[in-house]
Write a structure and sequence with these properties.
It is a single chain. This protein is mostly helical and 206 residues long. The protein has one domain: Four Helix Bundle (Hemerythrin (Met), subunit A) (Up-down Bundle). Helices cover 79% and strands 0% of the residues. Helix 1 packs antiparallel against helix 2, helix 1 packs parallel to helix 3 and helix 3 runs antiparallel to helix 4.
Length: 206
Protein backbone atom coordinates (compact mmCIF):
# COMPACT_ATOMS: atom_id res chain seq x y z
CA UNK A 1 0.00 0.00 0.00
CA UNK A 2 2.80 2.42 0.86
CA UNK A 3 4.21 2.11 -2.64
CA UNK A 4 1.00 3.47 -4.24
CA UNK A 5 2.03 7.17 -4.05
CA UNK A 6 5.31 6.44 -5.85
CA UNK A 7 3.48 4.34 -8.45
CA UNK A 8 1.13 7.27 -9.11
CA UNK A 9 4.06 9.66 -9.46
CA UNK A 10 5.82 7.31 -11.89
CA UNK A 11 2.53 6.80 -13.72
CA UNK A 12 2.27 10.58 -14.18
CA UNK A 13 5.58 10.53 -16.04
CA UNK A 14 4.37 7.70 -18.31
CA UNK A 15 1.08 9.49 -19.01
CA UNK A 16 2.95 12.70 -19.78
CA UNK A 17 5.13 10.91 -22.32
CA UNK A 18 2.04 9.33 -23.90
CA UNK A 19 0.27 12.73 -24.01
CA UNK A 20 3.21 14.45 -25.68
CA UNK A 21 3.70 11.70 -28.28
CA UNK A 22 -0.03 11.72 -29.06
CA UNK A 23 -0.01 15.50 -29.55
CA UNK A 24 3.13 15.30 -31.70
CA UNK A 25 1.48 12.64 -33.84
CA UNK A 26 -1.73 14.67 -34.08
CA UNK A 27 0.30 17.69 -35.20
CA UNK A 28 1.94 15.65 -37.96
CA UNK A 29 5.34 16.04 -36.36
CA UNK A 30 6.41 12.42 -36.79
CA UNK A 31 7.89 11.35 -40.15
CA UNK A 32 6.16 8.51 -42.00
CA UNK A 33 3.11 8.63 -39.70
CA UNK A 34 2.25 12.18 -40.74
CA UNK A 35 1.80 11.05 -44.36
CA UNK A 36 -0.97 8.68 -43.27
CA UNK A 37 -2.62 10.96 -40.72
CA UNK A 38 -6.33 11.47 -41.32
CA UNK A 39 -8.58 14.04 -39.67
CA UNK A 40 -10.32 11.27 -37.74
CA UNK A 41 -6.99 9.92 -36.47
CA UNK A 42 -5.86 13.43 -35.54
CA UNK A 43 -9.02 14.08 -33.53
CA UNK A 44 -8.72 10.71 -31.81
CA UNK A 45 -5.11 11.41 -30.81
CA UNK A 46 -6.07 14.84 -29.47
CA UNK A 47 -8.83 13.31 -27.33
CA UNK A 48 -6.49 10.62 -25.95
CA UNK A 49 -3.86 13.25 -25.19
CA UNK A 50 -6.37 15.45 -23.36
CA UNK A 51 -7.66 12.63 -21.17
CA UNK A 52 -4.10 11.44 -20.45
CA UNK A 53 -3.34 14.96 -19.25
CA UNK A 54 -6.45 15.03 -17.05
CA UNK A 55 -5.62 11.69 -15.41
CA UNK A 56 -1.99 12.73 -14.92
CA UNK A 57 -3.08 16.02 -13.35
CA UNK A 58 -5.43 14.21 -10.96
CA UNK A 59 -2.59 11.94 -9.80
CA UNK A 60 -0.70 15.09 -8.79
CA UNK A 61 -3.22 15.58 -5.98
CA UNK A 62 -3.63 11.97 -4.96
CA UNK A 63 0.01 10.91 -4.73
CA UNK A 64 0.83 13.58 -2.14
CA UNK A 65 -2.43 13.06 -0.26
CA UNK A 66 -1.95 9.29 -0.11
CA UNK A 67 1.69 9.63 0.93
CA UNK A 68 0.62 11.67 3.96
CA UNK A 69 -2.39 9.50 4.75
CA UNK A 70 -0.45 6.23 4.52
CA UNK A 71 2.60 7.72 6.22
CA UNK A 72 4.53 6.77 3.09
CA UNK A 73 6.57 9.92 2.50
CA UNK A 74 9.87 8.75 1.00
CA UNK A 75 12.97 10.36 -0.50
CA UNK A 76 12.17 8.72 -3.83
CA UNK A 77 8.65 10.12 -3.74
CA UNK A 78 9.97 13.56 -2.83
CA UNK A 79 12.13 13.40 -5.97
CA UNK A 80 9.50 11.96 -8.31
CA UNK A 81 6.67 14.32 -7.37
CA UNK A 82 8.22 17.69 -8.36
CA UNK A 83 9.84 16.13 -11.43
CA UNK A 84 6.46 14.74 -12.47
CA UNK A 85 4.84 18.17 -12.03
CA UNK A 86 7.43 20.00 -14.11
CA UNK A 87 7.55 17.36 -16.85
CA UNK A 88 3.74 17.38 -17.08
CA UNK A 89 3.59 21.17 -17.38
CA UNK A 90 6.48 21.33 -19.87
CA UNK A 91 5.07 18.43 -21.91
CA UNK A 92 1.63 20.04 -22.08
CA UNK A 93 3.09 23.40 -23.12
CA UNK A 94 5.26 21.86 -25.85
CA UNK A 95 2.40 19.65 -27.05
CA UNK A 96 0.10 22.66 -27.15
CA UNK A 97 2.61 24.56 -29.26
CA UNK A 98 2.90 21.57 -31.61
CA UNK A 99 -0.81 21.73 -32.43
CA UNK A 100 -0.31 25.02 -34.24
CA UNK A 101 0.02 28.77 -33.74
CA UNK A 102 -1.30 29.79 -30.31
CA UNK A 103 -0.71 33.58 -30.16
CA UNK A 104 -2.51 34.09 -26.84
CA UNK A 105 -0.60 31.20 -25.27
CA UNK A 106 2.90 31.80 -26.60
CA UNK A 107 4.08 34.48 -24.13
CA UNK A 108 2.66 32.95 -20.91
CA UNK A 109 3.83 29.48 -21.96
CA UNK A 110 7.36 30.76 -22.51
CA UNK A 111 7.36 32.58 -19.16
CA UNK A 112 6.16 29.46 -17.34
CA UNK A 113 8.91 27.33 -18.88
CA UNK A 114 11.50 30.01 -18.09
CA UNK A 115 10.41 30.08 -14.44
CA UNK A 116 10.30 26.30 -14.05
CA UNK A 117 13.81 25.78 -15.42
CA UNK A 118 15.16 28.70 -13.40
CA UNK A 119 13.74 27.41 -10.11
CA UNK A 120 15.03 23.91 -10.88
CA UNK A 121 18.50 25.40 -11.40
CA UNK A 122 18.21 27.33 -8.13
CA UNK A 123 17.29 24.15 -6.27
CA UNK A 124 20.24 22.31 -7.78
CA UNK A 125 22.70 25.07 -6.91
CA UNK A 126 21.19 25.44 -3.45
CA UNK A 127 21.31 21.70 -2.77
CA UNK A 128 25.03 21.72 -3.49
CA UNK A 129 25.47 24.30 -0.73
CA UNK A 130 23.06 22.75 1.73
CA UNK A 131 20.27 25.23 0.97
CA UNK A 132 16.72 23.89 0.88
CA UNK A 133 13.83 25.62 -0.84
CA UNK A 134 10.65 24.19 0.67
CA UNK A 135 7.54 24.31 -1.47
CA UNK A 136 5.34 27.21 -0.40
CA UNK A 137 1.56 27.12 -0.19
CA UNK A 138 1.34 29.64 -3.03
CA UNK A 139 3.54 27.38 -5.16
CA UNK A 140 1.13 24.49 -4.55
CA UNK A 141 -1.76 26.66 -5.71
CA UNK A 142 0.38 27.71 -8.65
CA UNK A 143 0.74 24.12 -9.81
CA UNK A 144 -3.01 23.50 -9.49
CA UNK A 145 -3.82 26.66 -11.44
CA UNK A 146 -1.27 25.79 -14.11
CA UNK A 147 -2.77 22.35 -14.62
CA UNK A 148 -6.36 23.63 -14.76
CA UNK A 149 -5.40 26.37 -17.22
CA UNK A 150 -3.35 24.02 -19.40
CA UNK A 151 -6.21 21.53 -19.44
CA UNK A 152 -8.47 24.33 -20.66
CA UNK A 153 -5.97 25.36 -23.34
CA UNK A 154 -5.65 21.77 -24.56
CA UNK A 155 -9.43 21.49 -24.76
CA UNK A 156 -9.61 24.77 -26.65
CA UNK A 157 -6.90 23.70 -29.10
CA UNK A 158 -8.73 20.37 -29.63
CA UNK A 159 -12.19 21.95 -29.82
CA UNK A 160 -13.14 20.19 -33.04
CA UNK A 161 -12.00 16.80 -31.74
CA UNK A 162 -14.73 16.88 -29.09
CA UNK A 163 -17.50 17.89 -31.53
CA UNK A 164 -18.10 21.08 -29.57
CA UNK A 165 -20.18 23.81 -31.25
CA UNK A 166 -18.15 25.94 -33.64
CA UNK A 167 -20.36 28.95 -32.93
CA UNK A 168 -18.06 31.91 -32.07
CA UNK A 169 -20.75 33.14 -29.68
CA UNK A 170 -19.89 30.16 -27.45
CA UNK A 171 -16.25 29.49 -28.26
CA UNK A 172 -14.99 33.07 -27.99
CA UNK A 173 -16.20 33.70 -24.40
CA UNK A 174 -14.88 30.29 -23.33
CA UNK A 175 -11.53 31.07 -24.96
CA UNK A 176 -11.40 34.44 -23.18
CA UNK A 177 -11.93 32.80 -19.78
CA UNK A 178 -9.37 30.05 -20.45
CA UNK A 179 -6.74 32.49 -21.74
CA UNK A 180 -7.36 34.75 -18.74
CA UNK A 181 -6.89 31.81 -16.40
CA UNK A 182 -3.64 30.89 -18.14
CA UNK A 183 -2.30 34.44 -17.80
CA UNK A 184 -3.29 34.42 -14.10
CA UNK A 185 -1.43 31.13 -13.64
CA UNK A 186 1.59 32.73 -15.33
CA UNK A 187 1.48 35.73 -13.00
CA UNK A 188 1.41 33.52 -9.89
CA UNK A 189 4.14 31.37 -11.42
CA UNK A 190 6.40 34.41 -11.79
CA UNK A 191 5.61 35.60 -8.25
CA UNK A 192 6.59 32.25 -6.75
CA UNK A 193 9.71 32.22 -8.92
CA UNK A 194 10.70 35.62 -7.53
CA UNK A 195 10.08 34.35 -4.00
CA UNK A 196 12.37 31.36 -4.52
CA UNK A 197 15.02 33.64 -6.06
CA UNK A 198 14.88 35.89 -3.03
CA UNK A 199 15.09 32.94 -0.64
CA UNK A 200 18.15 31.60 -2.44
CA UNK A 201 19.80 35.04 -2.57
CA UNK A 202 19.36 35.55 1.17
CA UNK A 203 20.59 32.04 2.00
CA UNK A 204 23.70 32.47 -0.14
CA UNK A 205 24.50 35.83 1.48
CA UNK A 206 24.26 34.24 4.95
Amino acid sequence: MKSIPNILSAGRLVLTLFMFIALALAAGGVPYFSERLTVEMQFSLERWAFWAFVVAAVTDFFDGWLARKLDAVTVWGAILDPIGDKVLVAGAVLGLMALGPQPMVLVPAGLILFREFTVSALREVGAGRGIKLPVTQLAKWKTTLQLVALGGELLLASWGAFDLPADPGLRDPVAMVIHGLFWLATLITLITGAQYWEQTHKALKE
